[in-house]
Design goal:
346 residues; alpha/beta; Rossmann fold; three-stranded mixed beta sheet; 39% helix; binds nicotinamide-adenine-dinucleotide; binds uridine-diphosphate-N-acetylglucosamine
């Protein structure tokens, strides 16, 4: 019998990574995770193992460490790499930009060097809709000109896209997927794995969930004077399991597709802050106190995807709706009020 394809997942203990590792294991892949646990806990992988009935191999290491990376590649042939490892806190990236360029850009560069040294040329990269900046029109298609991200985090994603595009142009063996995520939310339906933000959440849904759970007092709605139907910001929220499945479809597509492919992973639907608030209240039965607050600097009015290229070329589309996003978020939050530090889940 042929051995199962072996996928290396960087940052696989994190939010999107852990859901993707689960989908990979359930689809018959062997998985090695490399993560320095700077923003995660290996408890996520124990729970993934519980759900999948088999374990990923876990190596606690930093992708910027040549020796550690090389050892991982040398140990067992790798078929492809899915690259989630990176820092993602927008505000922190403004305060300590070098940490972001080092971790995200230099980390990716080291990873690509190690891949080439070991003859691995298939890479799926976590990019972001942030590379479109403030879009001229919505829905946003991949052909739309790239914008100017408003912070070092966003610029690090843009730089990595450029780095990978240059690399693929220099050597025809590279097959690269740039997946531009819209707004990932939700959790696995089991309530065992989910998003475990450090400190006070920056993003809307984890913040609402912590208000519902009694950890935070009220939501601040940042701006109700945007040119949107109800004045609040509109985003394309995508269920994290749909997003995880998109990685599997991208891996499949890369088998027959050289060069760089760029795909939006979004639903194509936009929801406002008030839409999200109401949907969460309906799913959880909780009332979420809120107050109106000034706009957050760097925010844009509207951002949602044209996901038709992913459907056409990857055979992928998001299937989980707003209700599932909310119910799954609340199940995860209420069973794990302190994230992976809670001991009673399941
Ligand atoms: P996360 O912080 O939960 O996961 C990232 C993981 O990478 C963490 O487990 C962290 O410990 C690990 N890591 C960071 N630096 C590392 C390094 N140098 N070496 C090894 N491991 C390292 O974040 P996430 O939400 O799962 O995001 C995954 C990827 O998707 C990131 O690259 C992020 O920028 C990108 N992304 C996320 C979102 C979002 O809203 N969550 C949106 C667009 C793009
Ligand atoms: C933010 C980041 C973006 C990153 C994305 C996914 C900024 C400026 N942008 O985008 O770079 O790629 O997360 O990680 O931080 N909102 C509130 N109150 C809150 C939180 C959010 O009203 O407490 C509103 C925001 O103004 C926005 C919407 O909710 O209209 C969604 O916010 P958020 O979840 O932070 O995502 P983005 O702004 O899309």
């Amino acid at each position: 019998m042929l051995p199962s394809p072996h996928i290396l997942v960087t940052g696989g203990a994190g939010y999107i990574g852990s859901h993707t590792v689960l989908v990979l294991l359930q689809s018959g892949f062997d998985v090695t995770v490399i993560d320095n646990l700077s923003n995660s806990s290996d408890e996520s992988l124990s729970r993934v193992a519980r759900l999948a009935g088999k374990s990923p191999r876990f190596v606690k290491a930093d992708i910027r460490e040549r020796g550690q990376l090389s050892a991982v590649f040398a140990e067992r042939p790798v078929s492809a790499v899915i690259h989630f490892a990176g820092l993602k806190a927008v505000g922190e990236s403004v305060r300590v930009p070098l940490r972001y360029y080092d971790n995200n850009v230099v980390g990716t560069l080291r990873l690509c060097e190690a891949m080439a040294e070991h003859g691995v040329f298939t890479l799926v990269f976590s990019s972001s809709a942030t590379v479109y900046g403030d879009p001229a029109t919505v829905p946003i298609s991949e052909d739309q000109p790239l914008g100017t991200p408003t912070n070092p985090y966003g610029r690090s994603k843009l730089m990595i896209e450029q780095l990978l595009t240059d690399l693929a142009a220099s050597d025809a063996r590279w097959k690269v997927a740039l997946l531009r995520y819209f707004n990932p939310v939700g959790a696995h339906e089991s309530g065992l794995i989910g998003e475990d933000p450090n400190g006070i959440p920056n993003n809307l849904l984890p913040y609402i969930a912590q208000v519902a759970g009694g950890k935070l007092r009220e939501l601040s709605v940042w701006g109700n004077d945007y040119p949107t139907p109800d004045g609040t910001g509109v985003r394309d929220y995508i269920h994290v399991v749909d997003l995880a499945e998109g990685h599997l479809c991208a891996l499949n597509a890369l088998q027959t597709r050289p060069g760089v492919g760029i795909w939006n992973l979004g639903t194509g639907r936009g929801y406002s802050v008030f839409d999200m608030l109401q949907a969460f209240e309906a799913a959880s039965g909780k009332t979420i106190p809120y107050r109106l607050a000034p706009r957050r600097s760097g925010d844009i009015a509207m951002c949602f995807a044209d996901p038709s290229r992913a459907e056409r070329e990857l055979g992928w589309r998001a299937s989980r709706g707003l209700q599932a996003m909310m119910e799954d978020t609340w199940r995860w939050q209420s069973r794990n009020p302190n994230g992976y530090r809670s001991s009673t889940a399941g």
